[in-house]
Amino acid sequence: LRLGRGARLFAFCDAGLLQAPTEAGAWSAPAGFGAGLRAPTRIGQVGLSYGLARGESPARGLIHGVMTGGF
């Protein structure tokens, strides 16, 4: 969702397939989801995202910040 002047609000889903080395043949499919915001600033693109693993409480979510710039 574009918010104007290059800012964006987005949602995401992340999934994988994992085989546990200690349990013979045990497979799991961890998944997560979240939302974030990216916006341009004078120093470059700044972003903040919040992600949560499936089955976790919101207090166990992770916040990820990013800053990119070019010259």
Question: How would you sum up this structure, described in words?
Answer:
The chain has 71 residues and is mainly β. It has strands spanning 2-4, 7-15, 18-19, 27-28, 31-41, 44-53, 62-68. Strands 1-2-5-6-7 form a five-stranded antiparallel sheet, with no helix packed on it. The protein has a two-stranded antiparallel ribbon with strand order 3-4. A hairpin with a 2-residue loop joins β1 (2-4) and β2. The radius of gyration is 17 Å and the shape is elongated.
Amino- and carboxy-terminal Cα gap:
27 Å
- Structural class determined from secondary elements: mainly beta
> Which strand order do you get reading across the main beta sheet?
1-2-5-6-7
Q: Describe the largest sheet.
A: 5 strands, antiparallel
**Order of secondary-structure elements:** EEEEEEE
Secondary structure: number of strands: 7
Rg over CA atoms: 17 Å
Mean pLDDT: 86
Helical percentage: under 10%
Instruction: Report the portion of residues in β strands.
Output: over 45%
DSSP helical segment count: 0
Low-confidence stretches: none
Quaternary assembly: single chain
Shape: elongated
Set out the fold topology.
Layout: E1 2-4, E2 7-15, E3 18-19, E4 27-28, E5 31-41, E6 44-53, E7 62-68
Give a brief outline of the structure.
The chain is mainly beta and 71 residues long.
Tags for this entry?
71 residues; mainly beta
